[in-house]
Design a protein that fits this description.
9 helices; about 60% helix; binds zinc ion
């Protein structure tokens, strides 16, 4: 199974690391090897996604017979944690892969991975339940499906009451919220959000990316994302547009203040 090969890969790397007391260097071709480990994550994450579906279906069945859904609720939270762990590892490996393919040397690669992983995992675990679960789209989906069983005509009350919902934070709780387009790497212009993976882009850039692929659905340009995006999956994201605008304004004000300080 794919899980085993991920384990094997880290064991191999450990052996390399321990076989020599000098720093181990990897040539850029090693990046290809890491890339093949990374594909294992896609199938693991697909299985995680299926788990959400199964838990939700089971909870709806339980709710229909007025049985306790709380254990499944806890189950969804555990799956969210597992998904976060996988995504954090995937992101780190991706980063290492890119650095190695650029010819960069990372001494003590295994230790580097372990340290970095410990840091990001700590960060994830230190987040409030609110951020980790209540804003997670799969948890919201689970809750609303269960809610609908006994309240078919009423919308579910919000799980978190914080006025305006922070869409980006809600769906990408494992990543740093970014106001930059992953394609242009500059601030989002006319931001649109893919409804299949919730990644956001400058409209022109992502439409160009999809057209360039000459297929109906192009692979999401965000590294580590395995989804395919169609133009019809893109929805304008007004709250994100507003936040970019606010951020840029606050930056301008700061610059003005600095300028005043110098004078
Ligand atoms: Zn994506």
């Amino acid at each position: 199974m794919s899980q085993r090969s991920v384990g094997e890969s880290s064991r191999q790397a450990t052996q390399v690391d321990e076989s020599t007391s000098a720093e181990v260097y990897f040539d850029p071709t090693y990046a290809t090897k890491i890339g093949s480990y990374l594909t294992d994550f896609d199938s693991l994450l697909n299985q995680v996604n299926e788990a959400y579906g199964h838990l939700t279906e089971a909870a709806v069945d339980l709710e229909n017979i007025n049985s306790d859904t709380q254990p499944l609720d806890e189950g969804v939270k555990r799956v969210i944690d597992v998904e976060a762990q996988l995504k954090l590892q995937q992101r780190l490996l991706n980063d290492i892969k890119m650095r190695i393919s650029r010819g960069e040397q990372i001494p003590n690669l295994v230790q580097h991975f372990k340290n970095e992983y410990r840091n990001v995992l700590q960060k994830w675990n230190s987040r409030s339940e609110d951020v980790r679960y209540l804003r997670n789209e799969n948890y919201l989906e689970f809750k609303s499906k269960v809610w609908e069983v006994n309240h078919p005509n009423d919308p579910m009350p919000p799980l978190v009451d914080d006025g305006e919902q922070d869409e980006d934070l809600m769906v990408m709780s494992t990543s740093t919220v970014t106001l930059k387009c992953p394609i242009t790497t500059t601030y989002l212009e006319d931001p649109v959000t893919s409804q299949v993976c919730k990644h956001s882009f400058s409209k022109e850039a992502i439409v160009g990316h999809i057209r360039q692929s000459r297929t109906v659905a192009a692979s999401c340009p965000v590294s580590g994302c395995s989804k395919y995006i169609k133009i019809s999956d893109l929805k304008p994201n007004k709250s994100l547009a507003r936040r970019v605008k606010q951020w840029l304004q606050s930056q301008e004000e700061e610059e003005e203040e600095e300028y005043m300080d110098v004078e």
